[in-house]
């Protein structure tokens, strides 16, 4: 599959600095190091579009990428990184929640979950908060190439089970590996449907 036309537009620390809200927009969120920036590179097929790092805490601002001239993908800072000072963490948290609540052209948030580990309280709480605020989201499990399929599937099932304690209708989920390109087609198809229907 060919790479998409993709260009970095700008980094913002508040919603008012983001590009004009005149195109369909999808954002990627999840724990630090879960693979948000890597997934953006994998989906677009442009290797170093979003900056990645093996050290958590790499993405620190709201980064807009214009794709195929008509929609935005947004890379956000991660949550739950223990080594960031509390004040800095609070700043990132406020920045991302303000963005998710206020950005008028934001159609969906993709919440990334590491499929190698059992359900984490911090992810479940994050998803719960999205739900209570009525922010539409999908789940994307990452790093599938790093787990044995049976274990990965159990972690995915357990996460959805944990959610079903609170929610009657569960969000759709996708399985991905940025390393292998797994899930690219399905996610691009979904993004197409979402942005066409907006
Ligand atoms: P922050 O910006 O710090 O919040 O992190 P992030 O969620 O953007 O993660 P990033 O994309 O920078 O990836 C973190 C590390 O995980 C990097 O070393 C990536 O190469 C690695 N990684 C990301 N996705 C995958 C994947 O699907 N498979 C494997 N094996 N490694 C991955
Ligand atoms: Mg990042």
Mean pLDDT equals 95
Percent of sequence in beta strands = 15-25%
Helix/strand class: alpha/beta
The CATH topology annotation reads as Rossmann fold
As laid out across the biggest beta sheet, the strand order is: 1-3-4-2-5-6-7
The amount of helix comes to 25-40%
Structural descriptors:
5 helices; binds guanosine-5'-triphosphate; 21% strand; seven-stranded mixed beta sheet; alpha/beta; binds magnesium ion; Rossmann fold
Protein model, in words:
- With 198 residues, the protein is an alpha/beta fold.
- The radius of gyration is 16 Å and the shape is globular.
- It has 5 helices and 7 strands.
- The two termini are 25 Å apart.
- The relative contact order is 0.17.
- It has a single domain, classed as 3-Layer(aba) Sandwich (Rossmann fold), CATH 3.40.50.
Topology:
Layout: E1 6-12, E2 25-30, H1 36-44, E3 62-67, E4 71-75, H2 86-102, E5 106-114, H3 121-133, E6 137-142, H4 149-164, E7 173-175, H5 184-196
Parallel strand pairs: 2-4, 2-5, 5-6, 6-7
Antiparallel strand pairs: 1-3, 3-4
Bound molecules: guanosine-5'-triphosphate (GTP) and magnesium ion.
Residues 36-37, 58-59, 75 line the site of magnesium ion.
Short recap of the structure:
It is built from 5 helices and 7 strands. It is an alpha/beta fold and 198 residues long.
